[in-house]
Design brief:
single chain; alpha/beta; 8 strands
Length: 239
């Protein structure tokens, strides 16, 4: 811990690169969120990142560790308030942050990706193209063996660099093409007015429901989907 903090202080002192502090927020450390942000401010870093919990593998059985939709909404509002009042760039990989920022700023402030937020009409238009979940739009993932997947948290093979060029994979993959479209997202994600700038986390939808078009159960607007997962887990526990 001490060595990590010393490393952060050294990086901040150099100011050669932007320095950020990141933590995955779950129910385990939810009550420490503001302490973590204030610690980042104390260290004088440029950004604080609240990473989304992605239930890959057996993680789907840890829904009791995942934030409830209400907790995630509170987290996103806290991040926004610190961004506006404290001058530190508080960002998150939760795509719903776009909705919160746009609602609270009356459309003026919008995350254009997981790593930057800005103001103005041009920013809003960019956010609606690459904002929110950027899978297949702004990024994909290349595994050590050359296998390409939509993102690091979505274990779906869309190509192999040993057999195809990256450009070919990026432009011809049917899965990536489907992931780029938000017009056919299911349930509340499909009708939300903030769908263009958010789209929900497709990796979370896939991990929990086995369907990357399913609703992201982390959003306050998809509370029913979260409760459905809770009920399914309770049924499994009983049997």
């Amino acid at each position: 811990m001490d060595k990590a903090v010393t490393g952060i202080k050294n990086a901040v002192a150099e100011r050669t690169y932007s320095v950020g502090l990141a933590s995955t927020i779950t129910r385990i450390n939810f009550d420490e969120l503001e302490q973590l942000i204030n610690f980042a401010i104390e260290l004088k870093v440029d950004k604080f990142f609240a990473f989304n919990f992605i239930p890959v593998g057996e993680g789907k059985n840890l829904i009791d560790v995942d934030l409830t939709p209400e907790m995630r909404e509170k987290m996103l509002n806290t991040l926004y308030d610190y961004y506006i009042k404290e001058g530190i760039a508080t960002l998150t990989t939760c795509p719903q942050y776009a909705r919160v920022c746009m609602m609270k700023s009356k459309g003026q402030l919008a995350p254009t990706s997981h790593y930057t937020t800005n103001k103005g009409e041009k920013t809003r238009l960019i956010a609606e193209f690459i904002g929110g979940c950027g899978v297949g739009r702004a990024y994909c993932a290349i595994q050590p063996d050359g296998i390409v997947t939509p993102c690091v948290y979505m274990p779906i093979v869309v190509g192999d660099l040993k057999k195809q060029s990256f450009k070919e994979i990026w432009t011809t993959s049917k899965v990536l093409e489907e992931l780029r479209s938000r017009e056919d997202l299911k349930e509340r994600c499909g009708i939300c007015e903030y769908r263009p700038a958010c789209g929900g986390c497709r990796a979370r939808a896939y991990a929990y429901f086995g369907d990357y078009k399913a609703p992201d159960p982390g959003c306050i607007n998809n509370k029913d989907a979260f409760l459905q997962l809770k009920e399914l887990k309770e049924e499994v526990a009983v049997t």
